[in-house]
């Protein structure tokens, strides 16, 4: 195999994750050319008009279909966004990397969750995070905050859309924004999403050569962790 087309969403984080997979592949297989194909995903197109109306796997559906249609060879996702059931014909070929799975708080004035004033607005689009935040601080207001990670950070720090936001710490680290975290939550205090911090690579199950290729960059420990968490 001389070339591989990696499909990804167009956000800065998604592209960086695809670039990470490309570097890992080329580090093991310098003779393989890797092309990163940026795709407008269904969730990206729907977000301005139908906030909150798609499920956990909406961001991955378009990429999966492109893979099934042969327009890309493999799709790179944040593993936490993958639905539990693989579409017919696709396989989770590799979990090549997992970063810190914890959630982090980004806030104005670098306040921790405990230090936020009563009535402060804390942004998230995750019901999982919202439920736990209400348990930790029932006196703050949980507000919906959407957009990619860069956008959510700007909404807090530049546009004053809310006082703070809870964001994946791995995402902040990959974007070089981890210095903006005013607090990183222990997993027994704020339980992260299953598979959070891990990258996933999907490809056609019948393409044994491609499955074998991606298997060479598999992180076995990361795979075992996410399989247990997603049961």
Describe this structure in words.
- The chain has 231 residues and is α/β, with parallel strands linked by helices.
- The protein folds into 2 domains: 132 residues, Periplasmic binding protein-like II (D-Maltodextrin-Binding Protein, domain 2, 3-Layer(aba) Sandwich); 82 residues, Periplasmic binding protein-like II (D-Maltodextrin-Binding Protein, domain 2, 3-Layer(aba) Sandwich).
- It has a 5-stranded mixed β-sheet with strand order 2-1-3-10-4, with helices on both faces.
- α1 links the parallel β1 and β2.
- The longest helix is centred in the first third of the chain and has 17 residues.
- It starts with a strand and ends with a helix.
Helices and strands in order:
Layout: E1 3-9, H1 12-28, E2 33-39, H2 42-46, H3 58-68, E3 74-78, E4 90-98, E5 103-107, E6 121-124, H4 127-136, E7 141-144, H5 149-157, E8 164-168, H6 169-174, E9 181-184, E10 198-204, H7 208-215, H8 220-229
Parallel strand pairs: 1-2, 1-3, 6-7, 6-8
Antiparallel strand pairs: 3-10, 4-10, 5-8, 5-9
Structural key phrases:
single chain, 231 residues, alpha/beta, D-Maltodextrin-Binding Protein, domain 2, five-stranded mixed beta sheet, 10 strands, elongated
Low-confidence stretches: 48-56
Shape: elongated
* Main sheet: strand order: 2-1-3-10-4
**Secondary-structure element pattern, one letter each:** EHEHHEEEEHEHEHEEHH
CATH superfamily of the largest domain: Periplasmic binding protein-like II
Oligomer: single chain
Strand tally is 10
Number of helices: 8
CATH level-1 class of the largest domain: Alpha Beta
Largest sheet: 5 strands, mixed
Distance between the termini: 34 Å
Question: Which CATH architecture of the largest domain?
Answer: 3-Layer(aba) Sandwich
* Helical content class: 25-40%
Kindly report the average pLDDT value: 92
What is the number of independent domains? 2
């Amino acid at each position: 195999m001389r070339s591989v087309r990696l499909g990804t969403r167009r956000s800065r984080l998604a592209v960086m994750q695809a670039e990470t997979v490309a570097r890992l592949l080329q580090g093991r297989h310098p003779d393989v050319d890797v092309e990163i194909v940026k795709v407008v995903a269904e969730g990206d197109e729907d977000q301005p008009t139908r906030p909150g109306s798609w499920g956990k796997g909406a961001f991955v559906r378009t990429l999966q279909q492109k893979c099934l249609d042969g327009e890309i060879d493999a799709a790179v996702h944040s593993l936490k966004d993958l639905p539990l059931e693989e579409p017919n014909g696709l396989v989770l070929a590799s979990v090549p990397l997992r970063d810190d799975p914890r959630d982090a708080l980004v806030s104005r004035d670098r306040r921790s969750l405990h230090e936020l004033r009563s009535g402060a607005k804390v942004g998230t689009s995750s019901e999982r995070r919202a439920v736990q935040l209400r348990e930790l601080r029932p006196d703050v207001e949980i507000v919906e905050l959407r957009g990619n990670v860069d956008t959510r950070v700007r909404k807090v720090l530049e546009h004053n859309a809310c006082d703070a936001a809870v964001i994946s710490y791995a995402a902040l680290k990959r974007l070089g924004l981890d210095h903006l975290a005013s607090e990183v939550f222990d997993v027994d205090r704020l339980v992260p999403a299953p598979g959070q911090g891990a990258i996933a690579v999907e490809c056609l199950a019948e393409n044994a050569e491609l499955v074998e290729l991606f298997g060479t960059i598999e992180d076995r420990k990361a795979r075992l962790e996410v399989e247990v968490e997603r049961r």
